[in-house]
Design goal:
With 363 residues, this protein is mainly beta. 5% of the residues lie in helices and 46% in strands. The chain has one helix and 28 strands.
Protein backbone atom coordinates (compact mmCIF):
# COMPACT_ATOMS: atom_id res chain seq x y z
CA UNK A 1 0.00 0.00 0.00
CA UNK A 2 1.44 3.40 -0.91
CA UNK A 3 0.65 6.91 0.28
CA UNK A 4 1.24 10.21 -1.48
CA UNK A 5 0.56 13.80 -0.44
CA UNK A 6 0.03 16.80 -2.69
CA UNK A 7 2.61 19.58 -2.78
CA UNK A 8 0.11 21.88 -1.09
CA UNK A 9 -0.40 19.43 1.78
CA UNK A 10 3.35 18.95 2.19
CA UNK A 11 3.90 22.71 2.34
CA UNK A 12 1.18 23.07 4.96
CA UNK A 13 2.50 20.40 7.33
CA UNK A 14 6.09 21.59 7.00
CA UNK A 15 5.08 25.12 7.93
CA UNK A 16 3.45 23.86 11.12
CA UNK A 17 6.20 21.52 12.34
CA UNK A 18 8.14 23.99 14.49
CA UNK A 19 4.97 25.39 16.06
CA UNK A 20 3.60 21.90 16.73
CA UNK A 21 6.79 20.55 18.29
CA UNK A 22 7.08 23.56 20.58
CA UNK A 23 3.45 23.31 21.65
CA UNK A 24 3.57 19.65 22.63
CA UNK A 25 7.01 19.96 24.23
CA UNK A 26 9.13 17.65 22.10
CA UNK A 27 12.23 19.85 22.15
CA UNK A 28 13.29 19.09 25.75
CA UNK A 29 16.38 16.83 25.79
CA UNK A 30 17.36 14.01 28.12
CA UNK A 31 15.65 10.61 28.11
CA UNK A 32 15.55 7.58 30.37
CA UNK A 33 12.68 5.27 31.18
CA UNK A 34 10.86 6.76 34.20
CA UNK A 35 11.12 4.94 37.53
CA UNK A 36 7.94 6.48 38.91
CA UNK A 37 4.96 7.40 36.82
CA UNK A 38 4.43 10.92 38.26
CA UNK A 39 7.80 11.69 36.60
CA UNK A 40 6.64 10.48 33.21
CA UNK A 41 6.05 14.04 31.99
CA UNK A 42 9.80 14.64 32.19
CA UNK A 43 10.40 12.03 29.53
CA UNK A 44 7.26 12.05 27.40
CA UNK A 45 4.65 14.55 26.33
CA UNK A 46 1.04 13.63 25.64
CA UNK A 47 -1.91 14.99 23.70
CA UNK A 48 -5.58 14.17 23.41
CA UNK A 49 -7.23 14.32 20.01
CA UNK A 50 -10.76 15.68 19.88
CA UNK A 51 -13.27 15.18 17.10
CA UNK A 52 -12.79 18.73 15.80
CA UNK A 53 -9.45 19.14 14.01
CA UNK A 54 -9.24 22.78 15.06
CA UNK A 55 -8.51 21.83 18.67
CA UNK A 56 -6.84 18.47 18.11
CA UNK A 57 -3.70 19.31 20.08
CA UNK A 58 -4.56 19.32 23.76
CA UNK A 59 -1.46 18.90 25.97
CA UNK A 60 -2.14 16.77 29.05
CA UNK A 61 -0.66 15.58 32.33
CA UNK A 62 0.40 12.22 30.96
CA UNK A 63 0.67 10.61 34.40
CA UNK A 64 -3.15 10.64 34.56
CA UNK A 65 -3.41 8.45 31.47
CA UNK A 66 -0.25 6.29 31.39
CA UNK A 67 0.12 4.03 34.44
CA UNK A 68 1.45 0.57 35.28
CA UNK A 69 -1.70 -0.80 33.63
CA UNK A 70 -1.02 0.90 30.33
CA UNK A 71 -2.00 3.92 28.23
CA UNK A 72 -5.70 4.82 28.21
CA UNK A 73 -7.68 6.77 25.64
CA UNK A 74 -10.53 8.33 27.63
CA UNK A 75 -14.11 8.75 26.52
CA UNK A 76 -15.03 11.89 24.56
CA UNK A 77 -11.77 11.73 22.60
CA UNK A 78 -10.76 10.03 19.36
CA UNK A 79 -7.12 9.38 20.31
CA UNK A 80 -4.31 9.83 22.78
CA UNK A 81 -0.79 10.34 21.48
CA UNK A 82 2.53 10.11 23.29
CA UNK A 83 5.91 11.43 22.08
CA UNK A 84 9.34 11.31 23.68
CA UNK A 85 10.68 14.73 24.57
CA UNK A 86 14.03 13.73 23.14
CA UNK A 87 14.63 12.80 19.51
CA UNK A 88 16.84 9.80 18.69
CA UNK A 89 19.53 9.66 16.02
CA UNK A 90 19.09 6.52 13.88
CA UNK A 91 17.15 5.26 16.84
CA UNK A 92 16.14 1.88 18.17
CA UNK A 93 13.01 1.46 20.27
CA UNK A 94 11.83 -1.71 22.01
CA UNK A 95 8.43 -2.34 23.61
CA UNK A 96 7.39 -5.35 25.67
CA UNK A 97 3.67 -5.99 25.33
CA UNK A 98 0.98 -8.63 25.17
CA UNK A 99 -1.27 -7.23 22.49
CA UNK A 100 -4.93 -7.06 23.54
CA UNK A 101 -7.74 -8.94 21.81
CA UNK A 102 -9.52 -6.33 19.68
CA UNK A 103 -12.72 -8.36 19.36
CA UNK A 104 -14.31 -6.32 22.18
CA UNK A 105 -14.24 -3.25 19.94
CA UNK A 106 -16.60 -3.03 16.99
CA UNK A 107 -15.21 -2.05 13.61
CA UNK A 108 -16.01 0.47 12.26
CA UNK A 109 -14.74 2.61 13.81
CA UNK A 110 -11.26 1.21 13.36
CA UNK A 111 -9.02 0.50 16.36
CA UNK A 112 -5.37 1.49 15.84
CA UNK A 113 -2.67 0.84 18.46
CA UNK A 114 0.78 2.27 17.73
CA UNK A 115 2.99 0.53 20.29
CA UNK A 116 6.60 0.49 19.06
CA UNK A 117 7.90 3.11 16.68
CA UNK A 118 9.16 6.54 15.77
CA UNK A 119 7.65 9.65 14.27
CA UNK A 120 9.01 13.13 13.64
CA UNK A 121 7.18 16.23 14.76
CA UNK A 122 3.87 14.37 15.30
CA UNK A 123 3.45 14.16 11.53
CA UNK A 124 4.46 11.72 8.80
CA UNK A 125 6.02 14.32 6.51
CA UNK A 126 9.50 13.79 8.01
CA UNK A 127 9.05 10.13 8.65
CA UNK A 128 7.15 7.40 10.45
CA UNK A 129 8.52 3.95 11.24
CA UNK A 130 6.37 1.85 13.52
CA UNK A 131 4.62 -1.33 14.56
CA UNK A 132 0.88 -0.96 14.94
CA UNK A 133 -2.16 -3.15 15.48
CA UNK A 134 -5.09 -2.31 13.21
CA UNK A 135 -8.25 -4.12 14.28
CA UNK A 136 -7.41 -7.86 13.99
CA UNK A 137 -4.12 -7.54 12.14
CA UNK A 138 -0.60 -6.42 13.06
CA UNK A 139 1.30 -4.25 10.63
CA UNK A 140 4.58 -2.42 10.23
CA UNK A 141 4.78 0.85 8.34
CA UNK A 142 7.42 3.17 6.92
CA UNK A 143 6.07 6.47 5.58
CA UNK A 144 7.27 9.91 4.62
CA UNK A 145 5.58 12.82 2.95
CA UNK A 146 6.14 11.38 -0.47
CA UNK A 147 5.54 7.63 -0.24
CA UNK A 148 5.30 4.73 2.13
CA UNK A 149 4.61 1.05 2.60
CA UNK A 150 2.41 -0.83 5.05
CA UNK A 151 3.02 -4.56 5.52
CA UNK A 152 0.68 -7.04 7.18
CA UNK A 153 3.00 -9.20 9.30
CA UNK A 154 0.38 -11.00 11.39
CA UNK A 155 1.20 -14.42 9.93
CA UNK A 156 4.90 -13.95 10.76
CA UNK A 157 4.33 -13.50 14.51
CA UNK A 158 4.42 -16.30 17.09
CA UNK A 159 1.10 -18.12 17.34
CA UNK A 160 0.67 -17.01 20.96
CA UNK A 161 1.42 -13.31 20.54
CA UNK A 162 -1.99 -12.35 21.97
CA UNK A 163 -1.60 -14.76 24.90
CA UNK A 164 1.98 -13.85 25.87
CA UNK A 165 4.16 -10.79 25.91
CA UNK A 166 6.97 -10.23 23.42
CA UNK A 167 9.63 -7.62 22.78
CA UNK A 168 8.92 -5.71 19.57
CA UNK A 169 11.77 -3.67 18.07
CA UNK A 170 11.96 -0.93 15.45
CA UNK A 171 15.44 0.08 14.23
CA UNK A 172 15.85 3.07 11.90
CA UNK A 173 19.02 2.93 9.80
CA UNK A 174 20.48 5.22 7.17
CA UNK A 175 19.52 2.78 4.41
CA UNK A 176 16.59 0.79 5.80
CA UNK A 177 14.20 0.18 8.69
CA UNK A 178 14.17 -3.18 10.48
CA UNK A 179 11.41 -4.75 12.57
CA UNK A 180 12.07 -7.60 15.02
CA UNK A 181 10.22 -9.70 17.60
CA UNK A 182 11.57 -11.88 20.38
CA UNK A 183 11.57 -12.95 24.02
CA UNK A 184 15.14 -11.63 24.42
CA UNK A 185 15.77 -13.85 27.47
CA UNK A 186 14.83 -17.06 25.63
CA UNK A 187 16.09 -16.69 22.06
CA UNK A 188 17.58 -14.08 19.72
CA UNK A 189 15.24 -11.64 18.06
CA UNK A 190 13.62 -12.75 14.82
CA UNK A 191 13.58 -10.42 11.82
CA UNK A 192 9.96 -9.84 10.79
CA UNK A 193 10.40 -7.19 8.09
CA UNK A 194 13.01 -4.98 6.48
CA UNK A 195 12.11 -1.91 4.43
CA UNK A 196 14.85 -0.45 2.23
CA UNK A 197 14.58 3.35 1.98
CA UNK A 198 16.19 4.95 -1.07
CA UNK A 199 15.13 8.57 -1.50
CA UNK A 200 13.71 7.85 -4.96
CA UNK A 201 12.57 4.86 -6.95
CA UNK A 202 9.62 2.49 -7.12
CA UNK A 203 7.63 0.83 -4.35
CA UNK A 204 8.05 -2.94 -4.06
CA UNK A 205 7.03 -5.45 -1.42
CA UNK A 206 7.18 -9.21 -0.91
CA UNK A 207 5.46 -10.80 2.07
CA UNK A 208 7.17 -13.41 4.20
CA UNK A 209 7.88 -15.98 5.37
CA UNK A 210 10.61 -15.95 6.43
CA UNK A 211 10.44 -12.14 6.61
CA UNK A 212 8.76 -9.46 4.57
CA UNK A 213 10.95 -7.20 2.47
CA UNK A 214 10.00 -3.94 0.78
CA UNK A 215 11.34 -0.88 -0.99
CA UNK A 216 9.88 2.47 0.01
CA UNK A 217 11.25 5.68 -1.50
CA UNK A 218 10.72 7.34 1.89
CA UNK A 219 13.32 9.88 2.97
CA UNK A 220 13.20 9.63 6.76
CA UNK A 221 14.58 12.18 9.19
CA UNK A 222 17.77 11.08 10.94
CA UNK A 223 16.27 12.32 14.25
CA UNK A 224 12.91 10.86 15.29
CA UNK A 225 10.70 10.77 18.39
CA UNK A 226 9.31 7.69 20.13
CA UNK A 227 5.61 7.31 19.29
CA UNK A 228 2.82 5.55 21.22
CA UNK A 229 -0.78 6.13 20.16
CA UNK A 230 -4.28 4.75 20.75
CA UNK A 231 -6.97 5.72 18.22
CA UNK A 232 -10.61 4.61 18.35
CA UNK A 233 -13.47 6.70 16.98
CA UNK A 234 -16.17 5.61 19.45
CA UNK A 235 -16.29 8.59 21.82
CA UNK A 236 -18.41 6.67 24.33
CA UNK A 237 -15.71 4.09 25.07
CA UNK A 238 -12.27 4.23 26.59
CA UNK A 239 -9.49 1.97 25.28
CA UNK A 240 -6.46 0.68 27.20
CA UNK A 241 -3.16 -0.27 25.55
CA UNK A 242 -1.48 -2.59 28.11
CA UNK A 243 1.99 -1.12 27.64
CA UNK A 244 3.97 0.09 30.65
CA UNK A 245 6.27 3.06 30.12
CA UNK A 246 8.94 1.04 31.89
CA UNK A 247 8.74 -1.48 29.04
CA UNK A 248 9.55 1.09 26.35
CA UNK A 249 13.30 1.42 25.82
CA UNK A 250 14.84 3.77 23.27
CA UNK A 251 18.37 4.79 22.33
CA UNK A 252 20.48 6.28 19.58
CA UNK A 253 21.85 3.70 17.17
CA UNK A 254 24.44 2.83 14.57
CA UNK A 255 23.46 4.43 11.23
CA UNK A 256 24.36 1.23 9.37
CA UNK A 257 24.85 -1.76 11.69
CA UNK A 258 26.48 -4.80 10.03
CA UNK A 259 24.17 -7.74 9.39
CA UNK A 260 24.40 -11.42 8.45
CA UNK A 261 21.47 -12.91 6.52
CA UNK A 262 21.16 -16.69 6.46
CA UNK A 263 19.49 -17.41 3.15
CA UNK A 264 16.11 -19.12 2.88
CA UNK A 265 14.26 -20.74 0.02
CA UNK A 266 11.93 -18.17 -1.54
CA UNK A 267 8.87 -17.46 0.65
CA UNK A 268 9.52 -20.39 3.01
CA UNK A 269 11.13 -20.99 6.39
CA UNK A 270 13.51 -23.55 4.86
CA UNK A 271 17.16 -22.56 5.18
CA UNK A 272 19.17 -23.14 2.02
CA UNK A 273 22.09 -24.50 4.03
CA UNK A 274 21.14 -28.09 4.74
CA UNK A 275 18.54 -28.35 1.97
CA UNK A 276 18.49 -30.51 -1.17
CA UNK A 277 18.11 -28.93 -4.62
CA UNK A 278 16.49 -30.48 -7.70
CA UNK A 279 16.48 -28.99 -10.31
CA UNK A 280 17.25 -25.48 -8.91
CA UNK A 281 16.38 -23.13 -6.06
CA UNK A 282 15.77 -19.40 -5.63
CA UNK A 283 16.50 -17.63 -2.37
CA UNK A 284 14.30 -15.17 -0.52
CA UNK A 285 15.45 -11.59 -1.32
CA UNK A 286 17.85 -9.71 0.96
CA UNK A 287 18.74 -5.99 1.20
CA UNK A 288 21.79 -4.54 -0.53
CA UNK A 289 21.15 -0.80 -0.70
CA UNK A 290 23.48 1.44 1.26
CA UNK A 291 25.93 -1.21 2.45
CA UNK A 292 29.57 -0.61 1.62
CA UNK A 293 30.46 -4.29 1.86
CA UNK A 294 28.23 -7.03 0.38
CA UNK A 295 29.60 -10.59 0.45
CA UNK A 296 27.83 -13.82 -0.54
CA UNK A 297 29.18 -17.12 0.78
CA UNK A 298 27.94 -20.31 -0.90
CA UNK A 299 28.90 -23.98 -0.93
CA UNK A 300 27.36 -27.14 -2.38
CA UNK A 301 28.37 -30.78 -2.61
CA UNK A 302 27.76 -30.61 -6.38
CA UNK A 303 29.13 -28.24 -8.99
CA UNK A 304 26.81 -25.78 -10.68
CA UNK A 305 26.04 -22.17 -11.52
CA UNK A 306 25.08 -19.49 -8.98
CA UNK A 307 23.19 -16.54 -10.48
CA UNK A 308 23.19 -13.35 -8.42
CA UNK A 309 20.04 -11.45 -9.33
CA UNK A 310 19.12 -7.86 -8.46
CA UNK A 311 15.78 -6.09 -8.57
CA UNK A 312 15.70 -3.03 -10.83
CA UNK A 313 13.38 -0.04 -10.55
CA UNK A 314 11.31 -1.47 -13.42
CA UNK A 315 10.26 -4.29 -11.10
CA UNK A 316 12.25 -6.87 -13.06
CA UNK A 317 14.83 -9.25 -11.66
CA UNK A 318 18.05 -9.13 -13.69
CA UNK A 319 21.15 -11.35 -13.52
CA UNK A 320 23.96 -9.27 -12.05
CA UNK A 321 26.61 -12.00 -12.35
CA UNK A 322 27.00 -15.76 -12.64
CA UNK A 323 29.49 -17.64 -10.48
CA UNK A 324 30.78 -21.12 -11.25
CA UNK A 325 30.48 -23.32 -8.14
CA UNK A 326 32.95 -26.16 -7.55
CA UNK A 327 31.81 -29.17 -5.55
CA UNK A 328 32.61 -28.99 -1.82
CA UNK A 329 34.41 -25.66 -2.24
CA UNK A 330 33.38 -22.48 -0.46
CA UNK A 331 32.71 -19.66 -2.94
CA UNK A 332 32.99 -16.07 -1.71
CA UNK A 333 31.64 -13.33 -3.97
CA UNK A 334 31.64 -9.58 -3.35
CA UNK A 335 29.10 -7.23 -4.95
CA UNK A 336 30.82 -3.91 -5.61
CA UNK A 337 27.95 -2.22 -7.43
CA UNK A 338 25.22 -0.25 -5.68
CA UNK A 339 22.03 -2.29 -5.84
CA UNK A 340 18.75 -2.21 -3.90
CA UNK A 341 17.82 -5.81 -3.08
CA UNK A 342 19.14 -9.13 -4.36
CA UNK A 343 18.64 -12.88 -4.38
CA UNK A 344 20.51 -15.96 -5.60
CA UNK A 345 19.47 -18.80 -7.91
CA UNK A 346 21.48 -22.03 -7.77
CA UNK A 347 21.34 -24.64 -10.54
CA UNK A 348 23.46 -27.76 -9.91
CA UNK A 349 25.05 -29.49 -12.90
CA UNK A 350 23.98 -32.95 -11.72
CA UNK A 351 20.97 -32.61 -9.40
CA UNK A 352 20.08 -33.34 -6.72
CA UNK A 353 22.64 -31.33 -4.77
CA UNK A 354 22.97 -30.55 -1.08
CA UNK A 355 23.66 -26.94 -0.13
CA UNK A 356 26.23 -26.68 2.63
CA UNK A 357 26.54 -22.89 3.09
CA UNK A 358 24.39 -19.94 2.00
CA UNK A 359 24.68 -16.54 3.64
CA UNK A 360 25.10 -12.83 2.92
CA UNK A 361 27.31 -10.56 5.05
CA UNK A 362 26.51 -6.84 4.94
CA UNK A 363 28.49 -4.01 6.50
Amino acid sequence: MSYKLTKEAIKEVLSKESERRTLIGIEQLGFLSPDTFPEINSFYTGILVARARADWITPIDLSLYWTENGLTKPIDYVAIGVFSRRSFNYGQVMSFIQLPDPSDYQSPPNLSLYFCGFERGSGIHSGLATWFAFNQIVQVAVWSAFAGVTLDVTSLLPADYRQNGYWYTTKVNKNCVEFYIGHRTVAPETLVAVVVTPATGSIYSLDGPPYSIAIAPAELSTMMDVLVNVTYGDLTRSVNLPLSARRVIASDGDPRPPRVYRLYELSTTTLLAGSSVDPNVTSHPFPLFGYEGKTINFMSDEAGNLDIEVLKTTGNWRIHSTIGILANTLSTTTIADEEIIGRIVFTPTLPPANILEAEVILR
